[in-house]
Write a structure and sequence with these properties.
Elements lengths: L2 E5 L2 E4 L4 E8 L6 E8 L6 E6 L6 E3 L7 E6 L4 E6 L8 E9 L15 E2 L3 E6 L1
């Protein structure tokens, strides 16, 4: 079992920045690829970014490339999502998720591949 707790969300103006954190507890953090997803009101949950177990491989969805950056600290059992140049369309609840993986460098973009989820943190971008 892995427990995930997100933090760092809030209200920010267009063009602003936030850093989301997700702290994991339970099993060995480095056994898991970690992803961030988001869900806006009335929309389905969508993939945002993923980082491999080792932290050396990352992938960001096109709409956030160059603005968001995923990273992890396997000593602190934490995954981060740096959000910059925020737009109103980034408004959503952001979730982190953990995928138990045998592979150090693999990453996963489907929410159905993930084993554990946090409760989410709200990000609101005002225009």
């Amino acid at each position: 079992q892995v427990q995930l707790v997100e933090s760092g969300g809030g209200l920010v103006q267009t063009g602003g920045s936030l850093r989301l954190s997700c702290v994991a507890s339970g099993n060995t953090f480095s056994n898991y690829a970690m992803g961030w997803f988001r869900q806006a009101p009335g929309k389905e949950r969508e993939f945002v970014a993923v980082i491999s177990r080792s932290g050396t491989t990352t992938y960001h969805t096109n709409s956030v490339k160059g603005r968001f950056t995923i990273s992890r600290d396997n000593v602190k059992n934490t995954v981060y999502l740096q959000l910059s140049s925020l737009k109103p369309e980034d408004t959503a609840v952001y979730y982190c998720a953990a995928k138990n993986s045998h592979y150090l460098y693999s990453w996963y973009t489907s929410q159905y591949e993930y084993d554990y989820w946090g409760q989410g943190t709200q990000v609101t971008v005002s225009s």
